[in-house]
Amino acid sequence: MERGLASGLLYSQHEQATDVGADTAEAAMICPPSIQFESSLLQIAPVDKVKCPYVRDVSDVLFQLYTRHNPTAAQGLLINDDERLYASNIDFNDNTVIIFHAFMETPDDGSVLWLREAFLPRGDTNIIIVNAQTLEAGPWYIRAAENTWYIGRIGALFIDYLVS
């Protein structure tokens, strides 16, 4: 099986990267090295999704936009997707707040919800929540802590995209 490089991550040639909110596309997965033998795919090691979630930059790290026009319904944004960005409610003249949620939090509760509800009534603000709940899931704190470098890297790429 041939492998290709997409967004700096390894994907199988037959797999496609998906975007936030896509209904029909399947998410691409990072897999251990493998070979195709007749109708079987043989991997060097199993993927344990509970202890070590596979990382997919288009679905494991999501960017959710909230504004005064959509205070409760997130709009998904993607790195290098200009069409999605310009179709969203983002206003580059407004302040932008980027929130990374904590270990075992989701973007819909806890401190993330509190911060979102605190910023939106203060005026025109773009709130972007970096949703990486599959990489920061419990009870695997050590694994979640180890994943923060990746979440930060994808967040930095997204910020670079927004300011370019």
Automatic annotation (TrEMBL):
UniProt keyword annotations, A-Z: Secreted
Top-level taxon: Eukaryota
GO cellular component: extracellular space
Record carries keyword Secreted: yes
One Pfam match: Lipase
A GO MF term: serine hydrolase activity
GO BP of this protein: lipid catabolic process
Coiled coil, from the record: none
Location in the cell: Secreted
Record keyword Secreted present: yes
Lipase domain location: 58-162
Predominant cellular place of this UniProt entry's protein: secreted
InterPro entries: AB_hydrolase_fold (IPR029058), Lipase (IPR013818), TAG_lipase (IPR000734)
Family: Belongs to the AB hydrolase superfamily. Lipase family.
Protein name: Lipase domain-containing protein
Organism annotation: Danaus plexippus plexippus
Lineage start: Eukaryota, Metazoa, Ecdysozoa, Arthropoda, Hexapoda
